[in-house]
Amino acid sequence: MSRPYRLDVRLALIVTAMSAVTLAAAGMVLKMEFTGGQFAIEERGLSSQVEDWAALVRREVDGSVVFERPAEPTEELDPPYTGLLTGARPVYGYAVVDADGRVLDRSQAKAPAGRPGPRTSTPVLSSGPALDGSGPLLIGEVYVPEAGAWLRVARARSDVEALAATFFAQLVEEMGWAALTLLLAIVVTAVAVVRASLIGLRRVAVQAGRITFESLGRERLDGATAPAEVQPLIAAFNAALDGIETGASAQRDFSIHAAHELRTPLADLRLRLEGLPSGADRTAAMRDVDAMARLFEQLLHIARLDGGAAFDLQPLDLAETVAAVLRDAAPRLVAGGRPVEAEGLETPVLVLGDPTLIALVLRNLLDNVRKHTPAGTRVTVRVAGDGTVFFHDTGPGLPSRFHRTSFARFARGNDDVRSGSGLGLSICETAMRRLGGTFRLDISVADCLFVMTFQTVPRPHAPPEPGSVPSC
Questions:
Q1: What does pTM read for this prediction?
Q2: Does the pLDDT of residue 97 top 80, yes or no?
Q3: What is the DSSP string of 331-386?
């Protein structure tokens, strides 16, 4: 099973990757635009330069064509930036050719090669190699009618690329930290926005965690603060809860009605059996009737507990409540040879509870002792001052399967269906949950020890006596 992913982490990674790609793409586009713009500047500058230099080409008396080389600029310039000069321009490379492409005059280096173009006084731009095979060169040429020749001036295209590389190298060096800071700010902002957007979803998760079988009839998910994308899921979840509640209510009503309807026939059947002569068949039938009556009684208890019936939890004396239950139920155990001892009933212990549910738990435990332990088993019920009740019997203890089922319903200690329905301990655990407490089996002892914890009520502080000085 794959591990669930975290939405905020995934979105943060996506935003980080997209931001990095966007910054890189923006840099590439900016460099392309810068390079294209620089080429346009170079072309305009070269056109202007070849037009100015056309006046320096003349034909001598002897018919030779010469180019009066202009003076170099006096300021020192970095090579990548020569294409951006205004005013005096450097002499990069030139060639004067005739109509046959024969070179009449040329510079020593980077002289453009190739045949001339049309006879026009408007500069024509092209690209090509130098006479020495290097290049490529950006070439501007113009026809000089007075000399009957073409002046071709060239600049290296690599100058433009070097200028762009130099510009962006300095840009990355000086502005790289700003780009990284911007990227970090985008990631942090994205994570914060995602987490803030998921607050409503977390609230819905908390609401879902509060829904139990007991609160099924009054708890639903409130998706008012959740994102719109999960609203269909919340609506479907609430609809599923409605269906579960309807089914549980129908099942509960069936159990209650069936148990009620069968009580009277069972009572009549018992009366008829009591009127029969004593015998083995009568004894077995009476035992079966008692087992069925107990099963129906337990089904009624389970249905009422699962139905979320309102129990008025109020402060009460736990010791006094336990003592009242023992006074009523213990004599039957003592008569069967199972002595019952009580401890801690002299000191009041104030807890939140319901006398009916507390009596239900203790009666089920006492009844289990009566039915499932041999004569001579000793029962000890101790009430502690922290609101804990210990129910200890010296019988054989529970089978190991109970440690695995965690008081599952219809889990019996043996295969004899007449010995019990397997609902008693489940009723105890459910009743204690309805009381806001806990019910557990202490497996550290060899016999059987159940521990019940209740919600204690803090005792009010007694008002100070007149004239007394409070201590610090």
A1: 0.46
A2: yes
A3: HHHHHTT--EEEES-SS--EEEE-HHHHHHHHHHHHHHHHHHS-TT--EEEEE-TT
